[in-house]
Design a protein that fits this description.
Length: 427
């Protein structure tokens, strides 16, 4: 299947936009952050006549502002020098500064002997199959970008299902297994089957989740790929086993689901009995608009999908370009929620995936001390913290939980009898 990366992508951008400078910028930024665009995205999703401001263009294409100006200049100069060692040093140093593994993913989530697994919450195990550590195309804001840089030290990957089943045997508390990446649906069905089939022999596993953006970026995966039918049969087997099969569709903008192939793919997937849930971060330049989210949730409900999460962009990679103040993310979520009926209000958010767990920004409270963000622990390493609340001073510029200043413990008891030990959550 055709896709564009590196110089080919830079050439495509220059040709289709008629702006060679955009192609040049892409060639520079693309040395640091990974970019890949499928033919489907280039031909069906991007509106080249509105580039570079088209949100679908922004979703997938490199832009010079993704790097700080001195960093952009350093990469550009290293490229111009033709000195490959210098270029490598500049790029490696820069990648390290872009916080490749936010949220303590490597030192906190990877279980002993389980490189390629993440076991953050007692009931849920994340599995990163080696052959699934790429995507049909890359989102420019991707928080998993280190998976795609070609550096094995930065890439989380498990060699085969044995590591996963071994861990499950030692952890009977795991009920949910999430196959993730990258995008596990880049794998041939046969390979995916090797991970899924053993789960169906384990009574403890009740839910199989698969994270994917294939409906948006490569709907042919479910239609005309040589093993598309086998994939659907595999999904049917999971459902027939009595388990919940959740396809976690990454959808950032309503236009992603407009092309007819995407609609046909959704119809086929729904026919398997899988539950299709949607999630995406709210990011500048792409979807920081309540009208966009409201339209997206409404259309998703009509298509039989369940809006699940609106995330906050993580502190990694090009957050300087895509990140939003928490106050803005909260306003987008609240306003979008007001514009849809109850069936479209199922997306929790804005949610931050932090070292401690998933924190949702519930709203703004007016305390005697002043206005405050109300945070709630949706998910936590320590299950005792789930559902607890915290208040932090309303900081209109803050973009992440660790920038917030908590109010004192006496203010953190919105739920009677459930004081939150938020010294651990905020601060
Ligand atoms: S689909 Fe997910 S993992 Fe793949 S590039 Fe987009 S955000 Fe990253």
């Amino acid at each position: 299947m055709t896709s564009f990366t590196g110089q080919r992508l830079a050439g495509l951008i220059a040709r289709r936009t008629g702006q060679p400078s955009l192609g040049h910028d892409a060639a520079v930024v693309g040395r640091v952050l990974p970019f890949k665009v499928s033919a489907h995205v280039a031909d069906e999703l991007v509106d080249w006549s509105r580039a570079p401001d088209d949100p679908l263009y922004r979703l997938v294409m490199p832009h010079r502002d993704m790097l700080a100006p001195p960093d952009f200049a350093a990469v550009e100069a290293a490229l111009r020098s033709g000195d490959r060692v210098r270029l490598r040093l500049v790029v490696d140093g820069l990648r390290e500064r872009l916080n490749p593994h936010p949220g303590g993913q490597l030192h906190l989530n990877v279980p002993e002997g389980g490189w390629g697994l993440q076991h953050k919450y007692p009931e849920t195990l994340l599995v990163f199959p080696r052959q699934g550590q790429t995507c049909h195309g890359y989102c420019a804001y991707c928080f998993r970008w280190p998976q795609f840089t070609g550096d094995p030290a930065r890439r989380q990957a498990v060699d085969g299902p044995g590591v996963m089943t071994g861990h499950l045997a030692r952890h009977p508390e795991v009920t949910d297994v999430l196959l993730t990446g990258g995008d596990p649906l880049v794998m041939r069905t046969e390979l995916l089957d090797a991970y899924v089939a053993p789960l169906l022999d384990l009574p403890q596993v009740r839910t199989v989740r698969i994270g994917t953006k294939a409906v948006s970026f490569q709907p042919e995966r479910f239609l005309t790929a040589p093993d598309a039918d086998d994939l659907l049969r595999l999904f049917e087997r999971v459902v027939a086993s009595g388990r919940h099969l959740a396809l976690m569709l990454h959808v950032s903008h309503p236009r992603e689901l407009h092309p007819e192939p995407a609609r046909r793919a959704l119809r086929r997937l729904r026919g398997t009995g899988a539950v299709l849930r949607t999630q995406a971060p709210v990011v500048r330049h792409v979807n920081d608009d309540a009208g966009v989210w409201a339209a997206m949730w409404q259309e998703q409900v009509e298509l039989g999908l369940v809006p699940y999460y609106m995330f906050v962009e993580r502190d990694t990679g090009p957050r300087r370009y895509f990140g939003l103040p928490l106050a803005r993310a909260l306003a987008v979520h609240a306003d979008a929620t007001r514009r849809v009926s109850g069936l479209g209000r199922t997306a929790r958010g804005p949610v931050m995936s932090t070292e401690l767990g998933k924190l949702v920004l519930d709203g703004i409270a007016h305390l005697p001390e002043g206005p405050a963000f109300t945070l709630r622990a949706l998910q936590a390493r320590d299950p005792a913290l789930v559902g607890t609340l915290a208040h932090a001073r309303l900081d209109p510029a803050a973009q992440w939980w660790d920038e917030l200043v908590p109010y004192g413990p006496r203010d953190q008891t919105l739920i009677p009898g459930k004081p939150l030990t938020l010294e651990g959550v905020v601060g």
